[in-house]
Amino acid sequence: PEIMNTTPSSPILPKKLTLLDATLIVAGSMIGSGIFIVAADMGRMVGGPGMMLLLWVITGIMTIFAALSYGELAGMYPQAGGQYVYLKEAYNPLVGFLYGWSLFAVIQTGTIAAVAVAFAKYTGQIIPWFSEEHILFQIQFSADFTFKFTAAQLLGIGSIVLLTAINAQGIEYGKIIVRAFTSAK
C-alpha cells in the first residue's frame, strides 16, 4: 500500500474507502450472510412469525448496543487493531494476543467456512450440478468410513480461493466485492 510519511515515526495510510464503502462494510458485518441460514431455523423453532419478528427486534436492539459500545471504544482507543487493542487495554497484552490468534486460527476461518458452505448449499438449490448429492469422487477407507468430495464442496472451496485472490489484489477490488455482496443482501 501507499504510505505517506508526515514524519518518520508516524506513517499515515491514504484514505481509500468512501463513506459508502465504510457503511457497507459495517452493514455487511452486522447483517451477515448467516441471516439466510438462521431465519429458517428460527421459523421452525419459535412457532410463528410474530414471535420471530419480536426476536429479530430484540436482537436488533442488542446489536445497536454492541455497535454503540464499539463506537465508544474506538473513540477511546483510536489505534488500529480493534478488539485486540480493547482487550489488551482492558486486561493485558496476553489476552489481546490470545484473542488475535484465536480470531485468525478459529473464529474467522470457521465463519468463512460456514458462509462458503451456505453459499454452496443455496447455489445447489438453484443449479443442481452444485448440490451436495453430486459426488465428484469418493474413497472407501473402511466399512465405516467413506470420504466423499461433492460439487458443493468444490464450489465452497473455490469461492474462498476466488474471494481471497480478489481481496489480495488490493482495496479497490475488495470494495467492488463488498459493494456487490452487501447490496445483494
Q: Count every beta strand, where a strand is a DSSP E run of 2 or more residues.
A: 4
Distinct helical segment count: 7
Distance between termini? 29 Å
| Radius of gyration computed on alpha carbons | 21 Å
Note the main sheet.
Answer: 2 strands, antiparallel
Order of helices and strands: EEHHHHHEEHH
Beta fraction: 5-15%
The overall pLDDT, averaged over residues, is 86
What assembly state would you assign to the polypeptide chains in this entry?
A: single chain
- Helix percent reads 55-70%
Counting helices, strands and paired strands, the structural category is: mainly alpha
Low-confidence stretches: none
Strand order of the largest sheet: 1-2
Q: What general form does the structure show?
A: globular
Detailed description of the structure:
Helix content is 69%, strand content 10%. The chain contains 7 helices and 4 strands, in the order E-E-H-H-H-H-H-E-E-H-H. The two termini are 29 Å apart. The strands form 2 sheets. Strands 1-2 form a two-stranded antiparallel sheet. A hairpin with a 2-residue loop joins strand 1 (4-7) and strand 2 (10-12). The chain is globular, with a radius of gyration of 21 Å. Helix 1 packs across helix 7 (171-184) and helix 6 packs across helix 7. With 185 residues, the protein is mainly α.
